[in-house]
Amino acid sequence: MKRYCLELTGDFACFTRPEMKVERVSYDVMTPSAARACFEAILWKPAIRWHIHKIEVLKPIRWINLRRNEVASVVSTRNVEAAMKGGAAILGLDIEDERQQRAGLFLRDVAYRVHADMEFLSERDAGANANKYYEMFERRASRGQCVNQPYLGCREFAASFRLVPDISAEPMPIAETRELGFMLHDLDFSKPSEPTPRFFRARLENGVVSVPAWNSDEVRG
Fold first, then answer.
1. For residue 155, what are the domain limits?
2. For residue 88, what pLDDT is reported?
3. Low-confidence ranges of the chain (pLDDT < 50)
4. What are the distances in angstroms from CA 221 to CA 52, 68, 198, 217?
């Protein structure tokens, strides 16, 4: 495995707490699953897996209340299946009928440094080696290239990213220490039809959240 560091910044962010059913309320700090998604937006292949190791908070935690329009429902999966089989099905939504206005408690003016390990799964690409993927990610990240635009919890909150080559030349994280409570680590997709959330007890220590390994005792289903 090889470790990389990305700096992620944005005007707004929302790492939604799953216990909030209607209104969106963000965690205080970026979640490991959201951080992983940013790395995968730059490079994802079946033969690699990202493991988030550490999240550094570079700016003070600030909040903003916003009301915004959301769509109340999604396209029926039955209609999608029917269309895939060549049948007649409605795949659109009438925005005027489905629009709902919801309040949200979001983060604003955020900046993070995220440290992640890239694991090469040789059994999924027997003819390649890890260096192929290391070079691919380094080339893409250093040029600002991505498959999908990385985002900070919600797709409308786009993230700017920068590959950090030398941590020693970077500014220190914020000098804040406090408990963050149970935080979403990631989803367990061992049963693809029923992904299960797993949590860990997060703590901000001098601006740094240390993320336990997925298979550690600290991560609970």
1. 2-70+101-210
2. 76
3. none
4. 18, 32, 4, 10
64 Cβ contact list (under 8 Å, min separation 6)? 12, 105, 106, 107, 108
Report the C-alpha gap between 78 and 120 in whole angstroms. 37
Count: domains in the chain: 1
Q: Is residue 76 part of a domain?
A: no
Strands 63-71 and 2-13: unpaired
pTM for the complete prediction? 0.86
Q: Could you tell me if residue 78 is inside a domain?
A: no
**Would you state the pLDDT for residue 149?**
96
Instruction: Please write the tens of the pLDDT for every residue from 69-105.
Output: 777 677 777 877 877 877 777 777 776 776 677 788 9
Query: How many whole angstroms separate alpha carbon 89 and alpha carbon 84?
Result: 9
**Gap between the Cα atoms of 35 and 126, Å rounded:** 28
The CATH number of residue 176's host domain is 3.30.70.2660
* CA dist 138 → 40, 141, 151 (Å): 13, 5, 19
Asked if 164 and 9 count as a contact pair (C-beta separation under 8 A), the reply is no
Q: Which amino acid is at 109?
A: D
Identity of residue 110? V
Instruction: Please count the residues of the chain.
Output: 221
Taking a C-beta distance cutoff of 8 angstroms, is the pair 22, 128 a contact?
A: no
Angle formed by the axes of helices 130-143 and 32-42, nearest 10°: 90
Tokens of 50: 């990202």
Instruction: Flag whether 14 is in a domain.
Output: yes
